Write a sequence for this structure.
């Protein structure tokens, strides 16, 4: 039996005043956004929260799967309506357990009613194969989004955020050795190989339910990026996200540490193989990432060598 309760829309629109909204008959998340951190996930959360086709949790990052059910951000979350309060109460109960409960996790999304909803947690990019397989087996029709960003730029943005939020001890950003020491932190390094993240998730998610989007497009054409994501999720791209514009990406403009040419070059050499892997496997804007760091000729020679090997092999077969 489905229950209803009155509420007002969180985005401030009246929607004809008080409205009866039913619990979802089949509670579950419609999608996960698995990152990447510093690649536009906050922008996406704001766009979906204000869109009339979605109900999004009052906590942007649930961290349910990477912290084994312990959700630290719930304590500071503010409920804006009855739906939020019900969600927060449910996730607090769920977080008290010492194991993953996929059925009760799905139940968190009962409050979405007939709207779309999902979990945007960039840390899910670091989940291991066992957890990913469990998630996808339980939610076979779950859509998965990954926002990819140039590994050098993404890592530098994460380090800058870490210093700004005092999660990282301030370091000499002009000293390549000091930078590399911080870059090798697992919390940074594991998030900085998008080709491996995508390959790991694609082993379990069916192709029609998995999409890679790019931070490059958020910078260059946010309107089209928004439209593409909404269409994939099954929402109406012509409906506005309240008064929020598609190019409202305030996080992009936050202060970053100054990246010197020497440090940039050292980071680029460290990520050279990953940049090339992204160009080959992710395609799209990633095809241009190696050239930013002067690897275009090496990339061309590498491709040519592969083609030459194939040509010689075919000639030998003939």
């Amino acid at each position: 039996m489905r229950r209803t309760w009155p509420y007002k829309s969180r985005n401030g629109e009246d929607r004809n005043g008080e409205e009866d909204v039913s619990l979802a008959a089949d509670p579950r998340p419609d999608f996960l956004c698995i990152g990447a951190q510093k690649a536009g996930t906050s922008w996406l959360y704001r766009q979906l929260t204000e869109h009339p086709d979605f109900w999004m949790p009052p906590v942007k990052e649930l961290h349910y799967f990477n912290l084994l059910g312990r959700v630290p951000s719930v304590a500071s979350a503010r409920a804006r309506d009855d739906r939020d309060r019900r969600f927060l109460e449910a996730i607090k109960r769920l977080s008290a357990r010492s194991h993953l409960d996929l059925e009760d996790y799905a139940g968190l999304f009962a409050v979405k009613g007939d709207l779309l909803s999902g979990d945007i947690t960039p840390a899910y990019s670091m989940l291991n194969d066992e957890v990913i397989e469990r998630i996808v087996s339980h939610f076979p029709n779950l859509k998965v989004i990954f926002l990819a960003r140039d590994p050098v730029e993404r890592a530098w943005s994460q380090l800058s955020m870490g210093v700004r939020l005092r999660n990282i001890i301030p370091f000499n950003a002009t000293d390549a050795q000091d930078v590399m020491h911080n870059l090798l932190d697992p919390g940074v390094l594991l998030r900085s190989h998008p080709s491996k993240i995508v390959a790991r998730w694609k082993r379990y998610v069916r192709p029609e339910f998995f999409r890679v989007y790019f931070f490059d497009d958020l910078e260059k054409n946010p309107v089209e990026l928004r439209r593409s994501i909404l269409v994939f999720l099954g929402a109406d791209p012509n409906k506005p996200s309240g008064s929020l514009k598609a190019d409202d990406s305030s996080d992009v403009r936050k202060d970053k540490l100054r990246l010197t040419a020497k440090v940039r070059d050292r980071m680029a050499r460290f990520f050279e193989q990953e940049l090339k892997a992204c160009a080959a496997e992710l395609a799209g804007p990633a095809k241009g990432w190696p050239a930013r760091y002067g690897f275009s000729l090496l990339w061309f020679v590498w491709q040519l060598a592969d083609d030459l090997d194939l040509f010689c092999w075919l000639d030998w077969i003939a």
User: Anything to note?
Assistant: The two ends are 69 Å apart (CA to CA). The longest helix spans residues 296-317. The chain has a mean pLDDT of 87.
